Amino acid sequence: MDNKTEAFARVKIDALLKDAGWNLTDGSSVLFEYALPDGTLADYVLCDRQGRPMAALEAKRASIDPITAQDQGRHYADSFSR
Q1: Residue 45 zone, left/alpha/beta (φ > 0; ψ -120 to 50; rest)
Q2: pTM flag (> 0.90)
Q3: Distance (Å, rounded) from C-alpha 7 to C-alpha 36?
Q4: Contact (Cβ atoms closer than 8 angstroms) between residue 46 and residue 29
Q5: Sign for the pseudo-dihedral over CA of 34, 36, 38, 41
Q6: How many domains does the chain have?
Q7: Residue 20 is part of which domain span?
Q8: What is the pLDDT of residue 58?
Q9: What share of the chain is helix, strand, coil (3-state, %, to 5)?
Q10: I want to staple 42 with a disulfide (CB 3.0 to 4.6 A). Which of 15, 34, 80, 81 is the partner?
Q11: CA–CA separation, 79 and 51 (whole Å)
């Protein structure tokens, strides 16, 4: 993803998360560029009140096949359940 497209996506995602009540600045509710055990990075990870990862968000260009993104999300979810 080029820097301009990625920056635009992140601005939109940040706004949506804030509107949904997520705290982006406390350092424990939303993690950015979260490293998974296999070394891949999730753009955003949403954590529960105990700081455990429970969901991942990946910023993608509109031209990316949603099935590809869905497969990536499944990979992240599998990493969380270990």
Answers
A1: beta
A2: no
A3: 22
A4: yes
A5: negative
A6: 1
A7: 3-80
A8: 84
A9: 40, 20, 40
A10: 34
A11: 15
Q: What is the pLDDT of residue 3?
A: 61
What pLDDT, in 10s, does the model give residues 30-43? 999 999 888 989 99
Mean pLDDT (whole number) for 58-66: 78
Query: Between residues 71 and 30, which one has the greater pLDDT?
Result: 30
pLDDT at 63 over 80: no
- The position carrying tokens 């939303």 is 30
Distance CA 76, CA 40 (A): 9
Which phi and psi angles does 53 have, rounded to 5°?
A: -60, 135
Assess contact for 45 and 59: CB atoms under 8 A. Answer: no
DSSP-derived letter for residue 79 is: H
